[in-house]
Design brief:
224 residues, alpha+beta, 434 Repressor (Amino-terminal Domain), Jelly Rolls, 2 domains, seven-stranded mixed sheet, three-stranded antiparallel sheet, 27% helix, globular
């Protein structure tokens, strides 16, 4: 799904799970009791022998009292100038889509930039999101229905959209082809991680996903 046909940097969820558990001084047995998962399953995840489903990560996030996006978070050294080669991008897969960081996660200022690759029917989730700051969206290819404060904008290649991120917003790929979007978020509060709102909403689809028909975009948007 990488439009440049190259591998990007992936995050080791097992290592993140171990780090989060140890930071909170929670034993594997204790985490197993809290999450309802077996200690053996947790051990396999931490050692990278199996990949957890988003439903499993949701249970672990609740048990550790962290957002599900904490499993994908990296804390790189912040810099005033960030250059990213295509092969160095951080990427996170979600149901029918892929998130790729464009360097904002390592920038000192309050700006985040990322690319979304959305397969047919990909959605930001059952609920809209909102956060501080301003959001810019640019459609590279395909089509996307971007809803902002109840207004629907059908974006096609070359179209752009700017709005206050404090307005409820969400997105859906209603077409039959893959869509690529560049999203830039700026001016958010220092304590916020606006990218995580997009990731958390997208990952929630995997947990709550029903059998809505992506061939009917209007009906699908109502259901998700």
């Amino acid at each position: 799904m990488d439009i440049y046909g190259k591998e990007a940097v992936s995050i080791d969820v097992g290592q993140r799970l171990r780090a989060l558990r140890e930071e909170r001084d929670v034993s594997m047995r204790a985490l197993a009791r809290r999450s309802g998962l077996s200690a053996n399953a947790l051990s396999m995840i931490e050692r990278g022998l199996t990949s957890p489903s988003v439903s499993t990560l949701s249970k672990l996030a609740s048990a550790l009292e962290v957002p599900i996006t904490a499993f994908f978070r990296q804390e790189p050294e912040r810099q005033k100038v960030v250059f990213r080669k295509a092969v160095e991008r951080t990427r996170i897969s979600f149901l029918r889509g892929l998130w790729e960081g464009l360097g904002g996660e390592a920038y000192t200022g309050r700006m985040e930039a990322f690319m979304l690759t959305l397969e047919r029917g990909a959605s930001s989730g059952p609920h809209g999101m909102l956060h501080t700051g301003h959001e810019f969206v640019f459609c590279l290819r395909g089509n996307v229905d971007f809803e902002v404060d109840g207004q629907h904008f059908l974006m096609q290649p070359g179209d752009s959209l700017i709005f206050s991120a404090q307005l409820v917003h969400r997105w859906l790929n209603p077409g039959q082809t893959v869509t690529n979007l560049i999203i830039v978020i700026s001016g958010f509060e220092e304590s916020e991680r606006p990218v995580e709102f997009h990731l958390a909403s997208s990952l929630a689809v995997e947990v709550e996903h029903d059998e809505a028909d992506p061939d009917n975009p209007a009906e699908f948007l109502k259901k998700v």
